[in-house]
Specification:
Elements lengths: L13 H4 L12 H8 L10 H22 L16 H34 L8 H15 L3 H20 L16 H36 L20 H4 L3 H21 L8 H16 L4 H32 L9 H4 L6 H12 L8 H19 L5 H12 L1
Helix pairs in contact: 3-4, 3-7, 4-7, 4-9, 5-7, 6-7, 7-11, 9-10, 9-14, 10-14, 11-13
Length: 401
């Protein structure tokens, strides 16, 4: 990748005026600096394609070459072959590359997201120092080394637990004895730690987004209760959710691959696992939606305050209309009745209804689907594995002819 990874298209002069707009959740943390120092990340850009291919190759190729050399690569060995263990292929060739490529989407998302706070007037000029400080606190936290030390500790602990507690998981097919051969150790000591480290890195990034949203929610944002997006003007936040789409699919695909092996080779009925499938998809979705939870407090406060304020406005307007047209009082020419921005009673009621319809979460269905759909798709595939797909397709084709 080239320098555009760090300077996305569309950056305006605001970027030079406000350094906060250069915020990124993937650049300049301890892991990024280490990867750049050892050459995994180039001096310019993120090098996501190069890293995705490199990590996929270093994880999958040694196991594949060992399987070919020992005659355990083809399906002729049934569930004891490499081809039958979907989890290894999905983890190495799908999940790990997707989790790396997702960094590119994350890198390009935040500059337009933060710039929108300024361009739409959500952050007033007088509040720019508070805006800058809110982002600066997150940057200082992101650059700390301690979170990555904890991630490394979790990776080591998880790999050790895999050896001690479940040595046959994903590696039992490589040997008929209790001894774990090369491919098994490669999976335990290389593939699983790499995958775990990248997943934990994304969980940490989700925490960073949560803290960023919390800091922004505490700002005196100039929200519009009657905004047609039903989120006070914050609905654009859902664009950030799309950077989590590859992450949701990658994690869900790894879990689904384990279920798929049980269905195909151990005769497990997918319908008996529907609770687990639904629970796994829901858990992945919730974890990746939680970073946006702080904005719920903002919208709840906005709706509570605006309901009272606009309720008072509607009440004043309605009482004056009643006094003028029902009781026939001479009330003069109150400004509230002649204000063109309020209009007739029906328009005033529409304004109040707009306030009452403020959503508790700043997402449309599209924003929710950006996370829920990729998290659910692999699980739905497992659920329909009991149906004879060729026969179903044949029936559909015949019905359409």
């Amino acid at each position: 990748m080239h320098a555009s990874d760090e300077q996305p298209d569309g950056a305006s002069s605001a970027g030079s005026e406000h350094p906060s707009l250069a915020f990124s959740i993937v650049r300049d943390d301890a892991a990024f600096r280490l990867q750049r120092r050892i050459g995994l990340i180039p001096s310019e850009g993120l090098g996501v394609v190069r890293r995705a291919l490199f990590l996929a190759a270093i994880c999958w190729l040694p196991i594949a070459l060992w399987a070919v050399a020992t005659g355990r690569a083809s399906l002729t060995h049934g569930e004891d072959s490499l081809a039958s263990h979907f989890g290894i292929h999905v983890r190495c060739l799908v999940a790990i590359p997707l989790l790396i490529i997702a960094e590119h989407a994350a890198q390009r998302s935040f500059r337009p997201f933060l710039r929108y706070f300024l361009e739409t007037g959500l952050v007033l000029p007088a509040d720019m120092p508070k805006f800058d400080e809110a982002i600066a606190r997150v940057v200082r936290l992101k650059r700390r080394v301690l979170p990555w030390v904890l991630i490394l500790g979790c990776v080591v602990a998880w790999a050790s637990a895999g050896v001690l507690l479940s040595p046959k998981e994903d590696v039992g097919w490589v040997s008929t004895s209790d001894r774990i051969p090369f491919a098994g150790w490669w999976f335990i000591l290389v593939v699983r730690p790499i995958f775990t480290a990248i997943v934990l890195a994304w969980i940490w990034r989700a925490c960073i987004v949560f803290i960023l949203m919390l800091n922004l929610a505490r700002l005196p944002l100039s929200l519009v209760p009657t905004h047609p997006d039903r989120a006070g003007g914050l609905a654009f936040v859902e664009r950030i959710a799309f950077m989590f789409s590859p992450v949701a699919f990658a994690v869900s695909a790894v879990v689904a691959a384990a279920f798929a092996h049980d269905v195909v080779y151990h005769g497990v009925d997918p319908m008996t696992m529907k609770g687990l499938l639904f629970g796994a998809a829901a858990l992945v979705s919730i974890v990746l939606l939680l970073p946006f939870a702080p904005l719920m407090l903002t919208l709840t406060r906005l709706k509570r305050r605006a309901t009272l304020e606009y309720g008072s406005l509607v009440g004043r307007h309605g009482r004056l209309v009643h006094r003028r047209w029902i009781t026939g009082e001479d009330i003069g020419s109150p400004e509230i009745l002649d204000a063109p921005d309020l209009g007739p009673v029906a328009d005033v009621h529409s304004i109040y209804e707009a306030v009452r319809r403020i959503k508790p979460f700043p997402f449309t269905k599209l924003g929710l689907l950006a996370i829920v759909a990729p998290a659910s798709a692999p699980m739905l595939f497992i659920a329909v594995m009991q149906f004879p797909l060729p026969a179903v397709i044949g029936k559909i084709v015949k019905a359409l002819l």
